[in-house]
Amino acid sequence: MSEANLKVQLQADMKSSMKTGDKSRLLVIRTMLAAIKQIEVDERIELDDDRIVGVLDKMLKQRRESISQFTSAGRDDLIAIEEAELVIIKEFLPEAFSEKEIAALIELAISNTGATSIKDMGKVMGILKPQLQGRADVGKVSQLIKHKLT
Asked: Given CA atoms 113, 115, 121, 124 in this order, what sign does their dihedral have?
């Protein structure tokens, strides 16, 4: 299996950050590469771009959760750090879907599965989750689906 383009891009950006002396950016990129490498070592595989997007999406979700916890604790200093990391991680993810695109995907998934009630939510999410990976907050989309099906 050939090396993933996203991983190559991350490595190139790491070198660029080293040359320019951007330590905060370098730290975030190294963290992303370490998370990717950890999975590759554990599973003894080379990750493709789709799987790397999944890893970065998970990191994004962790940052969002941290921000909400730091907000409730009143830790503005830590919120700023997490938000800066969020921006850097987003640079390596595909362009996010607009609200119209998300609504259209939800409608399509509901019609394809024949979902009529909240009991069918798993079917709809099963279709949407791979499409939304790294391009939308799956939690928010889940709320939109619940609203549609109730």
From this structure: positive
